[in-house]
Structure formats: structure tokens, C-alpha cells
Design a protein that fits this description.
The protein is mainly α and 139 residues long. It is built from 6 helices and 2 strands.
Amino acid sequence: MSSGSDFPRAEETAGAKGPAGREPTWTFLTNHARVLVILAGNPRARIRDIAAAIGITERAAHGIINDLVQEGYVERVREGRRNRYEIVPGGRLRHPSQNTVPVQGLIDLFAGTVAGPDTAHHGAEADQASPDTSRRGRD
């Protein structure tokens, strides 16, 4: 993993071949689901690291987090110049055919698969595992 991040960058996992031997043109998880799983594993994840892990822009990652906050799936807690994101318990999947399924089931199913192996770290360990090297501290 490059750039001192806990997350594999999208380009590090790019080129993975599907069952037919070619790169997939679609995936089963939306970017919203991927961001949610990352935040569940690392509540202090920086937007730039989330974006790099998924292969989207920082602006898109920020928009997704805003969607998750506005819909009540995530709470944003300010800690100094950084944010910590808490998953709100009790959320359900949004699609009408799946709205009885808890979001926590999705998180549990994909824990450690979207965000990389070091996302089980929380608290002081997480801060040591992924030091903030940015000068701007805007996340």
C-alpha cells in the first residue's frame, strides 16, 4: 500500500480479472456501500484515503459521505481539525425489495474486504497506523 495510507489504492487493485479473464465493467457494491464499509472499519479515515481506495475523486467521496450523513446512516463528529464518522445503528438498506435488511449485515459481510486489512484499528491505534501527513487537515 502506497502513500502511507491504510487503504489499498484503486490502481493497486486495478487489472484484476474476472471469471471470463477480462476486467469487470461493473461491480456488485455501489460506491456508497464501499464508503460505508470503509467508515465502519476506520471511523477516522480521511476523505482522500477513501477516494483513493475506491478509485473516485475526493469530491465524489465527500458527496457520498454527505449523502450518508443526511440520510441518517452516519454521524460526523468533529475532533479538532479532523472528522470521525460513526455508523448509526438500526439503518436498513434503501431499495424497496431489501428495506427490511439491516445495513449492519452488509458491513459485517464486507468488513475488511473493501478498505484493506488494517481497518480493524480504532482509537489511538488508528491514529498511529495512519498518521495525518496533510498540511491542510481539511478532512
